[in-house]
Write a structure and sequence with these properties.
The chain is mainly alpha-helical. The protein has helices at about 45-75, 75-105, 110-120, 125-140; strands spanning about 10-15, 20-25. It folds into 3 domains: about 10-75, no CATH class; about 75-105; about 105-140, no CATH class. The protein has 4 helices and 2 strands, in the order E-E-H-H-H-H. Strands 1-2 form a two-stranded antiparallel sheet. Strand 1 and strand 2 form a beta hairpin. Helix 3 packs antiparallel against helix 4.
Length: about 140
């Protein structure tokens, strides 16, 4: 391989915390595509490139920290906490409702048939008797 010629393949490393591959950079100039031994830049130019790269990285880090700080102070963090609390309360209420619903029994076929007969012949019964019979069918133990 010729000295100073860019390499065709870029070796990547996988970060353990993230599934992101990052290209290897020259430690002399911080450019991608070669290493320190094959760096095409002279010392002065390499220092300028490295300082520019480091300044860009510092600026990226500063912007990231600003976003994190703004998120933490914006109330979104508190809102997310409130949403989580409400979801827990809804789950508790839902569980108690489902539990009550399973404890209540459905009307039997006999009760349904008696209710149908009463409804069909409501005009033949006086109002007081009809109401008592329907209430007796609706009331649960």
């Amino acid at each position: 391989m010729l000295r100073g010629a860019p390499q065709e393949t870029i070796v990547t490393e996988v970060l353990s915390d993230h599934n992101v591959t990052m290209p290897n950079r020259c430690t002399h100039c911080k450019q991608v595509g070669h290493n320190r031994t094959t760096c095409p830049h002279d010392s002065w130019h390499a220092v300028e490139l490295r300082e520019a790269y480091n300044a860009e990285r510092r600026e990226d880090l500063r912007r990231y920290n600003e976003r994190v700080r703004a998120f933490n102070t914006s109330g979104v963090h508190e809102a997310r906490h409130m949403v989580e609390e409400l979801q827990q309360r809804i789950n508790l209420l839902g569980n108690s409702y489902r539990q009550r619903k399973t404890n209540s029994r459905a009307p039997t076929a006999r009760e349904v048939k008696v209710q149908e007969i009463l409804f069909e012949r409501a005009e033949e019964l006086n109002d007081g008797l009809y109401k008592e019979l329907m209430d007796a069918l609706v009331l649960k133990d």
